[in-house]
Amino acid sequence: MRVAFASDDENETTRAVVEALAGDGHEVVRPESAQGWPDLGRFVGRAVVDGRADFGVVMCWTGTGTAIAANKVPGVRAALAWDPWIARGARLWNDANVLAMSLKRLAPDVAVEVLRAFLDTPEPDPDEAENIAAIEPQAGETAATTAGER
Ligand SMILES: O=C[C@H](O)[C@H](O)[C@H](O)COP(=O)(O)O
Questions:
Q1: Residue 31 in 3-state DSSP?
Q2: Do 66 and 45 contact (CB within 8 A), yes or no?
Q3: Looking at the 3D structure of the chain, how many domains does it have?
Q4: DSSP code of 104?
Q5: Catalytic residue chosen out of the listed positions 58, 60, 78, 114
């Protein structure tokens, strides 16, 4: 598969993830230059939505900033995962298309397990199709209309 990858820092964990992606035969799509975490999250999100990548992986200290930035790209469903069960569930029940991980909190072997659990879960649960479709902004919905409904 083609997997877009970006991280705002590098350590043993990010290196293990990149090595696992390449070692497992994935084509890795990476940004050409170093950027801050908001732009990196957006880069990966756009790569997935544009079809340059099948899935995305974002990493930053917490994993949260890149996840939030990726999720601002319409069509992106980025999920922060810290163990394989969460990663598998994000694919099965949320059809997550971007995996976010903390480069500070996950040991290299755990990050690789999480990555593989995510990428090795090919199809979401059909029973969740309605919920997954409902994640996207609904026709005519804006921040103002959504707030008004509460
Ligand atoms: O959510 C943000 C990330 O965890 C960043 O990796 C962290 O805040 C460090 O970012 P910076 O190097 O820009 O201070």
A1: coil
A2: no
A3: 1
A4: T
A5: 60
Can you give the residue range of the structural domain that contains 39?
2-149
Q: Which of 60, 66, 103, 104 has most ligand 1 atoms within 8 Å of CB, for mutation?
A: 60
Predicted local confidence at residue 108, as pLDDT: 98
Establish whether 121 is a catalytic residue.
no
Residue 62, ligand 1, Cβ within 6 A? yes
Q: Please, what are the averages of pLDDT over each run of 10 residues along the chain (150 residues)?
A: 98 98 98 95 98 98 98 98 98 98 98 98 94 87 60
Total residues belonging to the chain = 150
CATH of the domain at 96: 3.40.1400.10
The Cα 78–Cα 54 span in angstroms is 13
**How far does the centroid of ligand 1 lie from the alpha carbon of residue 66, in Å?**
9
